[in-house]
Write a structure and sequence with these properties.
mainly alpha; Cytochrome Bc1 Complex, Chain D, domain 2; Oxidized Rhodanese, domain 1; 17 helices; 5% strand; disordered C terminus; binds heme C; Rhodanese-like_dom; Cytochrome_c_Oxidase_Subunit; C-type cytochrome
Amino acid sequence: MNRILLAIFAVVALSFNAPCRADLLSPLNQVEMAKADAMYQRYCSLCHGAQREGYKADHAPSLRSKSMLSTAFPQMMFDSIAFGRINSAMDGYIKDAGGPLTESDIILLIRWLAQKENISPIDLDQAPIPGKAAKGKELYGKNCATCHGDKGQGGTGTALADQLFLSSATDSYLKYAIVNGRDGTPMKSFAGILKDEEIHDVVAYLRSQASGWSPQPPELAPWPNPNEYVLNPKGNAPQFNLREGRYVPAREVEKALKDNNKMIILDTRPGSAWQRIHIPGAVPMPYYRDKSRIAENLPNDGTWIIAYCACPHAASDSVINHLRSLGYKNTGVIDEGIIKWIEMGLPVVAGKAKVNQVID
Ligand code: HEC
Ligand code: HEC
């Protein structure tokens, strides 16, 4: 149900009009290199690591694997970065979805990622691959579920049942990853383990998970006004029991909301994620925001400030560390993160007004 709910508010994965491939692979000049590098460090290194190695936080995959780069470049990479993946820590970064980057910023990033590893794109067949989904389901359970989750929801491996992922991954793209694995990552090659026909069955099973999804065009909600940041300004302070002096159980935050306690809740994911779904009253405060602006409009008077992300901790930790360094008392991070929060059936709201602004 939650998956369906999230899918309904997901942004349509619109294709961009890719300039011809030769242009995309033409060498970046020094100014472009420096700009892409800075964007990468600001927006992406938190999870994918300073050297693009992956697995810095939240099981974010490697952005160096030649197997990924040569098959995902340019369209799949563009879609992943622009629109993200539902139910994972990978959110959309394009302005149309409430994120901070323009289409040309994202094109620059994917060109930079490809050039860093000097890849040659592989042309994959666009035709569907026929296979038996029921057979594939069994094979998936035996060979893939330990890493990708029993329902394809992701784990140490990426979420394969993700609607945004499946809407842009072709059958051949899936097959290529299964046959070749992803170099330098835990995703090994299944070429000697499963027969070609069995791989087709697994692909058919993965594909069957994509059905029943009808994307909606994006409708962006207005960002809250600073005078709405403090929830229940006249309420009592909440009582939180912090684990390791920092992490607050989701249930305690839920109780504080019910009891109309005075507090601020910060959503530290990209603005696009806040647009899609957030905890009621949460203020968007993306982890990549300029440090000088994170504390903007946040009272430093002992009011409780609780941050969360999907991760469940990387983005919120970075914002809370910054507030603590400025002397903010009474700060914490929702231990479970918002994906678990949703799974626990705790309250969320989805954005859907018509104002298009960017939090940068
Ligand atoms: C030991 C853990 C593990 C197992 C088992 C495993 N995978 Fe993976 N898989 C991963 C990881 C980790 C990645 C991401 C690799 C990276 O960093 O690019 C991945 C990536 C993929 C991708 C590319 C997804 C994307 O986001 O582009 C596909 C498709 C895939 N796996 C399918 C499968 C299938 C099908 C099976 C079973 C036949 C399987 N995997 C078994 C760990 C695993
Ligand atoms: C908060 C953590 C986080 C941040 C920040 C983040 N990502 Fe990701 N990214 C992930 C995760 C987790 C996945 C895998 C999602 C899944 O399970 O499908 C992912 C997947 C991807 C993929 C798909 C790779 C594949 O193997 O298919 C690309 C490309 C990507 N990210 C690029 C970026 C870029 C570029 C940025 C910065 C603009 C960025 N990411 C920022 C967590 C993050």
